Amino acid sequence: MKVVNILEIADVNEALLNAGVPARVRLRDACGGQSLWVEVSREAVAEKDDAAVLAAARKVVSSYFAGRSKPVAFDEDGKSFRLA
Prior knowledge:
Number of domains: 1
Strand order of the largest sheet: 1-2-4-3
Helix content: 40-55%
Number of helices: 3
Strand content: 25-35%
Order of helices and strands: HEEHHEE
Structural class: alpha+beta
Radius of gyration: 12 Å
Shape: globular
Distance between the termini: 10 Å
């Protein structure tokens, strides 16, 4: 099973910041596995459409992990994802 380490979370969050996407990736790590999701900045929602921010975040996140041979698959909500 592929895993995401905390340094990758820091790096992908920096990539989101550099891309101007007001969102962060969150990680919950437990014995049963990892849970990852995109959290959109509530302050940014007033300025930008939530769906547009999520779409931009998914693009950055997918690109980041694909470059590390760890493709991701997003769930139906568009926020939660896992390594594919």
